[in-house]
Description:
heterodimer; A: mainly beta; seven-stranded mixed sheet; four-stranded antiparallel sheet; B: seven-stranded mixed sheet; 11 strands; globular
Amino acid sequence: xxxxxxxxxxxxxxxxxxxxxxxxxxxxxxxxxxxxxxxxxxxxxxxxxxxxxxxxxxxxxxxxxxxxxxxxxxxxxxxxxxxxxxxxxxxxxxxxxxxxxxxxxxxxxxxxxxxxxxx
Amino acid sequence: xxxxxxxxxxxxxxxxxxxxxxxxxxxxxxxxxxxxxxxxxxxxxxxxxxxxxxxxxxxxxxxxxxxxxxxxxxxxxxxxxxxxxxxxxxxxxxxxxxxxxxxxxxxx
Lengths: 119, 108
């Protein structure tokens, strides 16, 4: 059974750094792209970017380029999303999701990680 | 960047009736259009990909159609659990995918 399990909720102050995780199981992690999606409370879904765990090739939405960093460790089937300096506007739910294969889209999703940034 | 516009923003339908949701793309995405369902407090769930292919386990009352710039998600007979939010997403312009702003289906 394919599963993506994300790390728990975080409460941070502006300017702090953060890394959240997404651990996969039930499939060949290295060979499937992992995408990240943001959802501000009460709002819609925003595409952030995607990474290929086998070689850590990553692409970012223009809106998030330079704001976050995607990484992956295929030895432990885990993808990461990190910030070097959080802002209050980063407060949101963050989802990871697996791309099913060439030509397909996001077929399995993590449960989400809520990040709250407040002074 | 491909902009997806969903309409209406809110759709009021009675249980058992048909719901028709629209998604328009600012440029052709061929048939690389997906639909997701999101229930409160949950992650999105893939319903339809490739414009018309149902994902594994999705009930037959959900169907997708369209190509190019105009797409439709139809729910043939609304059940109580279907009154939630639906998003379209284009997976054509790799790797800059985009989502629509969502349609909330509410009980009339």
